[in-house]
Amino acid sequence: MKKSLQDKRNRFKMLEAAPSITASGPSGSGKSLMLMMMQPAFVNRLFSGNVGDNQTTLIRTRLMLDATMNDNEILVRVKIKPLDYVLILTHVSDVILETIYEARDDLEEFTVPEDTEHSLLNPRDQAYHFADYVGKCKAGCPTKDELHDLLAKLIDALIPNLRDAVREKEKETKTAYPKPKKKEIYEMVIQERLTNFDLAAPMNNVVDWFERLHSFIQNEIMENCEWLYDDQIYAVIDGIIDDNKNATTSHEMIENPIEALIRSTYDKKSAYSLVLDELAYCVRPSAAFLSSFEANFHQEASLGKVLRLNILDTPGLTQTGESLDVMQDTMQRNLGLKTDAFLFLCGADARKTVYDNFKVLLNQKEIKEKMNGLPVKILRTRADFRVYSRMKEICMEAEGDLSLLKENAVKYAKKAFDELVKENEEDSKEWTHILGINTQLELISLDSVQLESLVGNVMKEMKLTNKFLYDALFDIVRQVNESHMPDSKGLRYLQVKDIAKPALTIKMNTDVEVMLNLFGETMVALNARDSQNNYFQYESKRKTYHGRSVYTHKRKLEYGSGHETRAVIYENFVLHLRSMVQKWLSVFFTNRALNLQISFDNIADSESKRQAEKEAADVLMEVFLKHLPQIYFRMAKWFTYEGMRTEVEDIYKTEWAADPAFRKHMRIIMTKFSNREYWSRGLEYQIKLELNQLLNRMYFFE
Hints:
Blueprint: H1 5-16, E1 20-24, H2 31-36, H3 41-46, E2 60-66, E3 73-80, H4 85-102, H5 116-121, H6 131-135, H7 144-158, H8 162-172, H9 182-193, H10 200-222, E4 226-227, E5 234-241, E6 247-248, H11 257-266, E7 276-283, H12 287-296, H13 298-302, E8 308-313, H14 324-335, E9 341-347, H15 352-362, H16 365-371, E10 376-381, H17 383-399, H18 409-435, E11 442-443, H19 449-455, H20 458-461, H21 466-484, E12 493-494, E13 505-507, H22 510-530, H23 547-558, E14 563-564, E15 574-575, H24 577-589, E16 597-599, H25 607-626, H26 628-640, H27 645-654, H28 658-673, H29 676-695, E17 700-701
Parallel strand pairs: 1-8, 1-9, 2-7, 9-10, 10-11, 12-17
Antiparallel strand pairs: 2-8, 3-5, 3-7, 4-5, 5-6, 13-16, 14-15
């Protein structure tokens, strides 16, 4: 039976109050495979394209487990994102430069090569892959030929007298040290020409092509989905997967829309990353995971506590490359998301360079800052593969013959496992030093069929069965619960009257309004003190800013990271806006009490309610202080990007050249940061959001 839209909203509201764990690690470390061990078999079939070597998508996947879901029922929610103009402009600029530079000696008789549009649709950095989708020539979809013609017109508009301009630029940079390369000179001239009004129309036509592709894909997705709310950010579809493995919804449809959506999202050549930011799906946990929950939370389960849990599977750190820079960018993006805990996975058989880079990343100050105060657990997955590989080595050393492996499998397995445990103990000491907290790495098996066929029950002795993965996950869940529910209040249950409304809410009073006004004045004063020696100095610098540097800064700002450049012929900048604002917040809130009132109007009368009314304000402040580092981080991220998102995105949507866009961006920040209302109303929004979320997790609600 089809669920009503309100039923779906209620379901997600309950799930969003459940613990949320972000899983991150190198590609192939088992993040997606881990999800398969927690969910029903029919779901594993649907998501088989998102596991192992098949995985190429950069779309986040969120598993939302809910024990109140029916068997074979699935509810899918996709997060729609607007067109990423910075992403498109970055690659358009790259293609223009490469195309012109390769033909620099024959520009007078130049024609754009036939495959130029392919390098734009499938860039070398694997940021997206649209070529196959566009090549299917679906009715109404923008075509490759059309894009080729638009690129040709843009490039034709750029090349008149280009070599003369390049020679002039070479004279200007003659004294630069080190001397700029020829390609860099071409790039500078092209970037300057993109600021020319005469080029606005051909550039706009190229961007318009991608806007139409974005609309086409979004409309395709929405054919079988409905908007969850009027803001048109989340779209949902629900259904039942029947016994003969055909996905059906309550609609009378020939196709299987749920399966089609999932397959299209995770296809190796999917273009859905242009439109989708995240795909979340809600299902009932597997029987084994439910059983483990009842064993780990026996008291809570006996009192009626329902298993609800969110696991966010993020893109692999090495999915687009194994260099430290690539891994760092992906890690920063993954850690910039709101979460309750971090689960890091790295294969016990991972290449040494990948594992070493993984350690370097988690030892970086900015990465640690994003993890501050949250539970962290590190799993060395694929321990079974490591044991099996070492078993063969030991057998060959002892017998000189791998055919004897099965006969002595248990003996060799125990020896191999003991070696791995000893190595793991040394690794744990190093990780304790890196993270600054006592860290015990957990050895986990995610696919033990091959090893288990040789050693049988010895797998339990080595703690390589599914049970130990489940125990590790529930240990994190317990830490998350304890951080939101102080021990003395942790098992208090409250009955919600109307599930469509928040269980508890913050009521603002006059004391809070006074604080908000003071906050606005303080932030404006801090900005006046610091801006000229920080971000605003870069608004009036003489040299040009490099396009990729500008776009990288803007992208990193979205997830709360800073950026520094080390250019030679271009202007440099050092910007850590979120960090700067986070320090301002700390200055203001240190030793400052929040006097708040809490509404229990949506809670049914009971002894638990009466006790909660007495303690809630004090407990909330206790929990608030525990989470203060993460709250500061999210608030600072909001003030430096999300609060001015519309104005910032409009700049990069309409300003094709990076340098003037960057300067306008700095001016927008100055305007916002000089406005008391921006700070006071922004803080009001953030306080309500953060405290209401904490409130609705301080107790168990049903």
